[in-house]
Amino acid sequence: MTALVIGLGNPGEEYAATRHNVGQMVLDELASRGGGALSVHKKTRTRSATVRLASQPVVLGVPMSYMNVSGGPVSSLAKYHSVEPADIIVIHDELDIPFGEVRLKRGGGSGGHNGLKDLSKALGTPDYVRVRVGIGRPPGRMDAAAFVLKPFSAAERKELPLLLHDGADAVETVLSDGLEAAQQRFHTRS
After folding, report:
1. With the C-alpha atoms ordered 146, 148, 149, 155, is the resulting torsion angle positive or negative?
2. Domains defined along the chain, listed by start
3. pLDDT in tens, 114-155
4. Residue 109 in 3-state DSSP?
5. Which residues of the chain have pLDDT under 50?
6. Coil vs helix vs strand at 106
7. Backbone phi, then psi, for 111, in 5-degree steps?
8. Which positions are catalytic?
9. How many CB atoms are closer than 10 A to CB 55?
10. Pairing mode, if any, of strands 39-41 and 46-53?
């Protein structure tokens, strides 16, 4: 396999439409584009599918654990498919990016994101590509942890399909043209 693409989020219907699950939502868009359906992979505690994106085979995966302990399942799936951390793309929600924007980077800290912290620990490195899907900051004095577990607002839900499309396009651009080309495309939007 050339790449492993992971969509972070929490399991269960109560979390399905929350901001914290936007990574899984983008992954569902990629599965749809690749014509694959995620199925349970019991050995790795993930739901996964192998599809073709950007003219190459790609493993898509979603941990079946909660976000904060997603590292083990992702690491297991990477080992199962013999994918090195440098070939992993992780899609996740990002508070520090305005809603509707997508940013990409390789490596770095967790920025307080416990899913990334656990993932970096399990992989033994933070050196994987991150597709950071902007959900914006909480309003007023709302706690960030409470904000990410709330559903998108009515106004955001109208724009959400475009954001999911952009997130999926960003992943496909990384796969076809590399990280730098994807950064140039998505970071220069006004």
Report:
1. positive
2. 3-187 (3.40.50.1470)
3. 999 999 999 999 999 999 999 999 999 999 999 999 999 999
4. coil
5. 190
6. strand
7. 60, 30
8. 20
9. 8
10. antiparallel
